[in-house]
Design a protein that fits this description.
With 127 residues, the chain is an alpha+beta fold. The protein is built from 4 helices and 4 strands. It is 36% helix and 18% strand. It has a 4-stranded mixed beta sheet with strand order 1-2-4-3, with helices on both faces. Its EC number is 3.1.26.5.
């Protein structure tokens, strides 16, 4: 099951804007790009996510799609805790093929906290 439509980055222009203007955070298996937008009118957009798995990770589409499914499954329960108005692209590194759900969950939570987009958590609280 995928992410809700409101929480998806759909167009290449959206991905490109996040890559060009967003901040970058890394872990051993993932790279997170975050673009936080503050709306002056006070309207809040839900957080939007995109997942990028290159052919450099694996030539087999089955493997790439499995990685995307695992990351989507990790993101889905975290959506209510993530601040509104941010656009996030999760890119998978080459060595992530051996990762499983628990590794992705731990790394994504750490990256979200480092990027300070999870409500109630800031990096200062953990240090």
């Amino acid at each position: 099951m995928g992410l809700p439509k409101a929480n998806r980055l759909k167009h290449p222009k959206e991905f490109q804007s996040v890559y060009q203007q967003g901040r970058r955070y890394q872990s051993p298996h993932l790279v997170l790009r975050v673009l936080s937008k503050t709306d002056p009118l006070g309207e809040t957009e839900p957080p939007q996510f995109g997942i990028s798995v290159s052919q450099k990770v694996s030539k087999k589409a089955v493997v790439r799609n499995r990685l995307k499914r695992q990351i989507r499954a990790v993101i889905r329960p975290l959506i209510p805790a993530i601040s509104t108005g941010c656009k996030v692209v999760v890119a998978v590194k080459r060595n992530a093929v051996e990762c499983n759900y628990e590794h992705f969950l731990r790394e994504l939570e750490e990256l979200f906290i480092k990027a300070e987009i999870i409500y109630g958590h800031t990096r200062k609280h953990l240090l």
